[in-house]
Amino acid sequence: xxxxxxYRRGRRRSRLPVKVDINAAxxxxxxxxxxxxxxxxxxxxxxxSRDGSLRIERGNGSRHEVLLLGDPxxxxxxxxxxxxxxGGWRLPSRKxxxxxxxxxxxxxxxxxxxxxxxxxQSASGxxxxxxxxxxxxxxxDANAPEKxxxxxxxxxxxxxxxxxxxxxxxPPTRTQLRYHIVITDLASANAFPLPGGSxxxxxxxxxxxxxxxxxxxxxxxxxQHLESHHPEEVIFxxxxxxxxxxxxxxxxxxxxxxxxxxxxxxxxGDAQESVADxxxxxxxxxxxxxxxxxxxxxxxxxxxxxxxxxxxxxxxSHPGDERRALRLEGLAGQTPLATGPPLDQAAWKNAILGxx
Length: 356
Prior knowledge:
By secondary structure, this protein is an alpha+beta fold. It folds into 3 domains: 2-85, Pleckstrin-homology domain (PH domain)/Phosphotyrosine-binding domain (PTB) (PH-domain like, Roll); 93-124; 127-351, no CATH class. Helices cover 49% and strands 15% of the residues. The chain has 13 helices and 10 strands. It has helices at residues 72-81, 94-124, 129-143, 153-167, 203-209, 212-227, 230-246, 254-261, 270-287, 292-303, 312-317, 322-333, 345-351, and strands spanning 2-9, 16-23, 26-31, 36-40, 45-48, 54-58, 65-69, 180-184, 191-194, 198-202. It is rod-shaped, with a radius of gyration of 35 Å.
């Protein structure tokens, strides 16, 4: 097989264009002036250059010779006659290349849909507490600024007491964590958790819940999102690899925190909601709250086909339907209703008047 290449001898820096005949005996190199040089496979070494060409050498000092071949077919031919030079390297055939392309087209999306979610789930549980607080504070400042927060002490104390009672059901290793409730003076019915343990609760949700037991269910649901690190998963999905590298390693810059804050209230998927639902029912029963009001709240919500404007924010971040309400009912029905200390309904009604 004939091909072209460049040839250099000794300390000469310039490379001469040459024609090369590749055969079973070796390489025959012919310069433009007709000078001919022979390379035997036994007397030469070869390696791949960064640009993909084949660098063939023999001798040293003034007798050092270098031959460069760039044609892939020529490189394949050399490997065919002397496979020991390149360790049996072969250019992939068109069929093999097509198989590789197909595999990549299949494996890359599969890796994104299967492996990446598992990576996100694992990483979300390894975020340092200090990082969670920093990101959570940035999101709190963006989604519930102080100017919108309700500072009524009676209402804040009543709602925080519900959360504290629920938290007593957590494992011993988690009881030292106090979930902090932030009430905003907004008429919309919404609630969402943030990294670091904050739960934002719109005043409209308190009014919509009507009873402390129902609101306890809403809070238990948000606590279960936090226990499962769902807000962190949402952030990782939104920020993709930047979130995985910067947040999971603890190196959260101001830019990363701002990006997290720009996400808005976390919006969870059906699988995350199912986990939070099941955990909320168990938590309510363990804390002595009757979950039937919470279940009725979801039934009424799922049957509201017109969609009350006041519920629009909650709908956006909490997917729900009649099946979800039935699932909650089934979970509650598996365990006898617990009887805890009765809540003073009159005091509760007085408390929720705060911030009006």
